[in-house]
Design a protein that fits this description.
By secondary structure, the chain is an alpha+beta fold. Helices cover 44% and strands 17% of the residues. The chain contains eight helices and eight strands; from the N terminus they run βαβαβαββααααβββα. The chain has a five-stranded antiparallel beta sheet, with helices on both faces. Strand 6 (224-228) and strand 7 (231-237) form a beta hairpin. Helix 3 packs antiparallel against helix 4 and helix 6 (193-207) packs across helix 7 (211-220).
Length: 287
């Protein structure tokens, strides 16, 4: 996902909250439902939230003329992932973002849909709730936040492959990428097809219990497979073929999934036999 943060040095809470809650682009499902996450805030109106944001400013430890009073933060996803996005996923990722951003802050988060892509607007306090400590993020902290929330998205929602972004990684970390792909990342800030594939392969492998399960998950993520020599040897994304072996997913590595499956079956059988013996002993004692 893409993360944008805009600082405000005036207490324009009400203006931002009004836009977030009442604008025509606010997202509602077919049943007319939406969500408004309120964190460290009470009530259900923008006027109540505005008062609490302003009251919390009294706790500010270091007051300056140019202090950041609030930040307008936006989480957005690529329009090509729109078919796989739901209100539930947006709310879950927004809550995860808040926890990773700073669980001591004050937040209101509301979903919007505009120009064929989904995004969540977040009104964030400039200082922590009742401590007065700044909520400012240093450049390094912001990069870490972006990487953490993207990893959360990758692990939980690998189908959102078009929304993977290059968040500050260095060239040496891209041994599997060609030079032209790296240059594409530098120009656009977006992940290449190869990086998207690698991310989905890693996530699906981590969750899979067997080879069949692994390839099924890849299919659900929009990756089709192709066969060479009588077995699946690669995947296809955007009409480009990627060999599993080249990306580090050798046949030996895939066989590890089968070992895990067999071990699970053996453990299940052992438990079944143990339970049967236990039942027999109980019945025998009753007799």
């Amino acid at each position: 996902m893409i993360i944008k943060i805009k600082s405000h040095k005036k207490p324009s809470f009400l203006k931002l909250l009004d836009y977030m809650v009442n604008d025509k682009d606010r997202l509602f499902d077919k049943e007319g439902k939406s969500f408004a996450i309120t964190y460290n805030l009470k009530g259900d109106s923008i006027e109540e939230w505005d008062k609490q944001f302003r009251a919390n400013e009294e706790y500010r430890q270091h007051k300056r003329v140019n202090s950041v009073i609030l930040t307008h933060e936006i989480l957005s996803w690529h329009r090509d992932d729109a078919k796989d996005i739901s209100l539930g996923k947006l709310e879950d990722m927004a809550r995860a973002y808040i926890q990773k951003r700073n669980p001591n802050g004050m937040y209101v988060a509301v979903p919007h849909f505009d120009k064929e892509h989904y995004h969540v607007h977040i009104c964030t306090s400039g200082i922590e709730y009742r401590t007065g400590k700044t909520m400012r993020l240093a450049k390094k902290d912001l990069q870490e936040l972006k990487q953490k929330i993207q990893q959360y998205q990758l692990d939980k929602y690998p189908e959102l492959s078009k929304s993977i972004v290059n968040h500050g990684k260095q060239k040496k970390e891209y041994a599997l990428l060609f030079e032209n792909e790296y240059q594409y990342q530098q120009r656009t800030g977006r992940a290449t097809d190869k990086e998207q594939v690698i991310g989905m392969l890693k996530t699906c492998y981590k969750k899979a219990n067997s080879k069949e399960d692994f390839f099924g998950m890849l299919k659900d993520c929009g990756l089709s497979t192709y066969v060479r020599g009588g077995r699946i040897s690669g995947v296809v994304l955007n009409e480009r073929k990627f060999r599993l072996r080249t990306l580090g997913f050798t046949e030996e590595r895939l066989q590890e999934l089968e070992k895990t499956l067999n071990q699970s079956k053996e453990l299940s059988e052992l438990r079944k036999k143990t339970n049967e013996k236990t039942k027999e002993k109980i019945i025998s004692r009753r007799r």
